[in-house]
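Predict both folds.
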Amino acid sequence: MLVLTRKIGETIIINDNIRVQVVAIEGTKVRLGIVAPPEVRVDRQEVHERKRRELGLPAPAPTPTES
């Protein structure tokens, strides 16, 4: 896992075509703005997991940092 420190207004770039910008920080919450091509689905984890369950797909294997 890559861990970065960013300030409000700063951006990270993923694969030249995905931009993640820190929009706001309020207490323990960070608001992110994400710009990605239409073919790249961007969901919160709980929404992603619900969609997989609804489609009857198995849960993905945990990443090394999750085990």
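Second protein follows, with its predicted structure tokens after the sequence.
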Amino acid sequence: MAHGVTLIPGDGIGPEVAGAMRQVVEAAGVEIEWHEQQAGAATIEQYGTQLPPHVLDCIRKDGVAIKGPLTTPIGTGFASANVALRKALDLYACLRPVHNLPGISTRFGDVDLVVVRENTEGLYSGIEHEVVPGVVESLKVTTERACKRISEFAFAYARRCGRRRVTVVHKANIMKLTDGLFLKCAREVAERHSEIQYDEMIVDATCMRLVMDPERFDILLCENLYGDIVSDLTAGLVGGLGVVPGANLGEGVAVFEAVHGSAPDIAGLGLANPTAILLSACLMLDHLDEQPAADAIREAIYAVLRSGEHLTRDLGGTAGTQEFTDALIASLPAAGVRKKEQGG
């Protein structure tokens, strides 16, 4: 039976990388009924919003969506469609696995960590107002419910995936009530999971340690703003936002995404690298219990990166999006055979 999946191509290079992802997933033999929906800049003129209600309805019906990048205006204009999507669907957990990929040279060679980010509140609650002209105020909202459920998610993920340590990232030395509540909830959850190591680190110290010794980290549990910053920082350790996946998870609904920008300067030129959305599609296939296909696509990506023959320009090659995609598809049968021989 085919899986129903909402596909949001997104802005800029989004349609190109989303199209490449769709080709590869279909070539891997997964039966998906794609329900394509438009969101982001493309819908503003027609609907007056970046996130029309019928898009949310489609995602709720399918329970699973995957999207390309959506442009977020800076300073003025429409609010972030990405933030609105997470809040509307209560996608409380943002999951960002970060690890080295073969063929991509970086300063560190043994990075393998996961950023778990609370996705619905904190300073990203968007509660701002002007007190008097020239003075504005932004409220940081922190609730026990949100802190406990993201902590539970992090420890459950650690147990399920064989992770050894959860590090809580905070600034409770300054924000004693908001970040203090986050720490209190994390500690309470940690006490029930003694098999998993637990520690805490101030956010600025965390950033310093990440650029000095990232291999020491396993799971980083963050409130919203810190998670946003730390997840991009860690992506930079392994090659950038173009080579890491992302997932936003809630109760009964999951949205997988390319976490990089829309790159309007190269949109329509066939130059975009689809690796990020492909790896996000692998997370989606894991979620859909299509593990063999997910593993085969990952192995195909690794094989192409390792060969260095069909790399896009951002990876040091000369290939376009379609050449890179064709090389992945050509690698899929061999990847699938290897997994079968290994008992996968």
